[in-house]
Write a structure and sequence with these properties.
- The protein is an alpha+beta fold and 727 residues long.
- Helix content is 44%, strand content 17%.
- The longest helix has 22 residues, at 24-45.
- GO terms for molecular function: calcium ion binding; glycerol-3-phosphate dehydrogenase (quinone) activity.
Length: 727
């Protein structure tokens, strides 16, 4: 009883005293127990109509079409929109959600992958004595703890190092990071700590040693953002929400309110993007959760409505995993232009970003070369000179549009709202805009509270705190072992399935085909260097994937990790989807072309390929030109001035190496700048010049030809002037 009374006193003073009196670990365990009990009680009240199998997309469209009236129609399938749908349906409101593209196809899949309160926001709050900013950080830290709890398979704490290069900065940053821990209170993931120079380099050996005095390590959360968004949307569907992707709003439906005589929004005219079929979805209220496209829907409601969204583009790049330790991120708190850069391990790669540049609203943002090079320059500033950060190491790059907003009710319309806003128009359209990925749940709760009050809906209280998301039930850190033992999957594949699908990983494993090999028994990979397997494509269709882009970008994350690998996997992905969805040959070709266009423009493949085309000037000395021409002529025996797949295959056969013809065609196509089916000597020299400059780092043709040349030379007398240089 004394312990409980002490806890009650602690709740009143914010939790600081109890850590001193009773021990933080004891308090945390008590609070976790209470949270679990509350979660069990909340979930016991909820019915899950589709606990075993999700309704098909066709069934969802039928529900949207045939339901006489929903309580709530949410427009937008990003994190906030999906969060609103889940909040609404678990309050026993009849809920619908439509998304004109795929779930998480916009900003929600293009984040820094962090679940965080915002260290820099706290710094501003303290320096400017800004209470609103302080409360924003406190709320985000609460939501961080909740998100890590409800989706443990998709998220985890991540230590982030802040290197310090001036002695006076050590106590300054330490005080700020400790304040971050203090604001989190009992929801602090792990306590931050200071490292000596030696220990910092031991944990992050790639770090620049010169003038380093030490480092501070703090903890935030990291997640798979697109899969997290999808988990929220699928959870809403499990609880009975009618959700449909590729369903766009053409215009809003309105009717006159008999009491006020004003027109009120009562639903939306929608169109199935895939079939073109149009239908009405009627609802007592409509929630606008369209992110950067907020103003477009507001203007459907009222053409005179002023714009409140001020879009800002954030570019990220992905480079090989060897650039960072497996489990330690890096924060650059003050870049050359005052921005913050994160350098984080993610999905066995390294992600770096972000920029912050005003932009126009578009559904297809493109990463700019200037932004990519800015990030690379900032990364070089913090890494050892021994580590050469090359432009050619950028495996993927993307741009996401952050929807900063101004408050429409504010007199000063130019001031950007630091947090989010919930506004209700005269016709009853509810708009939720702005905010952060981390706070999607609390934003949804606030939106539904406002909606229920304004539209006088009969609803239960919010139940999403502690409500486990899709895949969370049945997940344990050792679940992957059962997948290996029960199905004969590779360990890496099993770990990937467990961390992507959680308890639903067994459903994916059951669909996996036998490999015909001794090991692994099941699970054919889409590409050899990534753990994605063919059965995930089939399961993606059950998760409402409609296009090949959905699979490479959001059901798997292959397009975000390596555009070249994604491009190689596309033919097989289209083949599997085509068979399952009964696509015609014309449709399969369209899907392949659309997906390659997506990779080329939105995932940085264009910037990657232009590293050769932009290097029109061949920057090689005479000795290097002679060496590379000699290498080229080993393949161009007839001195045609170009080589084809036939020439390369002939040389490879002579050294007993076999490469599939399709794979060989892809290898040459990477260098074939004018796309005439052959590689000219000038194109080859341009490639080698780009390799020399570091603009291209993993050209398969360059490596293949170098290896073949070395094998051939071993069969010949070695001349004294033979160069032993690199590629």
């Amino acid at each position: 009883m004394a312990f409980r009374r002490a806890l009650k006193r602690t709740a009143l003073v914010g939790g600081g005293a109890v850590a001193t009196a009773f021990g933080l670990s004891q308090l945390i365990e008590y609070r976790k127990t209470q949270a679990r009990l509350a979660q069990v009680a909340a979930e016991a009240e909820l019915k899950v109509p589709f606990i075993d199998e999700l309704p098909s997309r066709q069934a969802q469209l039928a529900a949207l079409t045939n339901t006489e009236e929903f309580d709530v129609l949410v427009v937008g399938g990003g994190a906030t929109g999906a969060g609103c749908a889940l909040d609404a349906v678990t309050r026993n409101l009849k809920t619908a959600l439509v998304e004109r593209s795929d779930f998480s196809s916009g900003t929600s899949s293009r984040s820094t992958k962090l679940i965080h309160g915002g260290v820099r926001y706290l710094q501003k709050a303290i320096m400017k004595l800004d209470y609103e900013q302080y409360m924003m950080v406190k709320e985000a830290l609460h939501e961080r703890a909740n998100l890590l709890e409800i989706a443990p398979h998709l998220s985890a704490p991540l230590p982030i190092m802040l290197p310090v290069y001036k002695w006076w900065q050590l106590p300054y940053y330490w005080a700020g990071i400790k304040m971050y821990d203090l604001v989190a209170g009992i929801q602090c993931l792990k306590s931050s700590y200071v490292l000596s120079k030696t220990k910092a380099l031991e944990l992050f050996p790639m770090l620049k040693k010169d003038k380093l005095v030490g480092a501070i390590v703090y903890y935030d959360g990291q997640h798979n953002d697109a899969r997290m968004n999808l988990a929220i949307a699928l959870s809403a569907a499990r609880y009975g929400a009618a959700i449909a992707n590729y369903t766009e709003v053409i215009h809003l439906l309105k009717k006159k309110d008999p009491q006020s005589g004003r027109e009120k929004v009562c639903g939306a005219r929608c169109r199935d993007v895939i079939t073109g079929q149009e239908f009405d979805v009627r609802a007592k209220c409509v929630i606008n959760a369209t992110g950067p496209f907020t103003d477009a829907l507001r203007k459907m409601d009222n053409q005179e409505a002023s714009n409140i969204c001020q879009p800002s583009a954030g570019v990220h790049i992905v480079i090989p995993g060897y650039y960072s330790p497996d489990n330690m991120g890096l924060l650059d708190p003050a870049t050359s232009d005052g921005r913050v850069i994160f350098f984080l391990p993610w999905e066995n790669m390294t992600i770096a970003g972000t920029t912050d540049t005003p932009t126009s609203v578009t559904a297809h943002p493109i990463p700019g070369e200037d932004d990519i090079n800015f990030i690379l320059r900032e990364v070089r500033n913090y890494l050892s000179p021994d580590v050469e950060v090359r432009r050619g190491d950028v495996l993927a790059a993307w741009s996401g549009i952050r929807p900063l907003v101004t408050d429409p009710s504010s007199k000063d319309t130019q001031s950007i709202c630091r947090n989010h806003i919930v506004s209700i128009s005269d016709s009853g359209l509810v708009t939720i805009a702005g905010g952060k990925w981390t706070t999607y749940r609390s934003m949804a709760e606030e939106t539904l509270d406002a909606t229920i009050k304004a539209h006088r809906l009969s609803a239960d209280s919010c139940k999403t705190v502690g409500l486990m998301l899709e895949g969370a039930k049945g997940w344990t850190p050792t679940l992957y072992i059962r997948l290996v033992q029960d199905y004969g999957l590779e360990k890496e594949v099993a770990q990937h399935l467990a961390s992507t699908y959680g308890g639903r990983a067994f459903d994916v494993a059951k669909m996996a085909q036998v490999t015909g090999q001794r090991w692994p028994i099941v699970g054919k990979r889409l590409v050899s260097e990534f753990p994605y397997i063919e059965s995930e494509v089939l399961y993606a269709i059950k998760e409402y994937a409609c296009t090949a882009i959905d699979v490479i970008a959001r059901r798997t994350r292959l397009g975000f990790l390596n555009v070249q690998a994604a491009d190689e996997a596309l033919p097989r992905i289209v083949q599997i989807m085509g068979k399952e969805l009964d696509w015609s040959q014309e449709k399969r070709t369209e899907e392949l072309e659309a997906a390659r266009k997506f990779l080329y423009h939105e995932m940085g493949y264009r910037s990657r390929s232009e590293q050769i085309t932009k290097t029109s000037e061949i920057n090689l000395d005479n000795h290097e030109v002679a060496r590379y021409k000699k290498r080229f002529h080993k393949f161009d025996k007839e001195s045609k001035g170009f080589i084809t797949t036939v020439d390369v295959q002939r040389v490879l056969q002579s050294i007993n190496v076999h490469i599939d013809e399709n794979a060989l065609h892809e290898i040459l196509n990477e260098v074939d700048l004018n796309k005439n089916g052959q590689v000219e000597i000038d194109e080859f020299l341009q490639l080698m010049s780009a390799v020399k400059k570091g603009h291209v780092s993993d050209s398969r043709l360059a490596i293949l030809m170098k290896t073949a040349e070395e094998t051939l030379d071993q069969r010949e007398p070695v001349s004294v002037d033979r160069s032993g240089g690199g590629v």
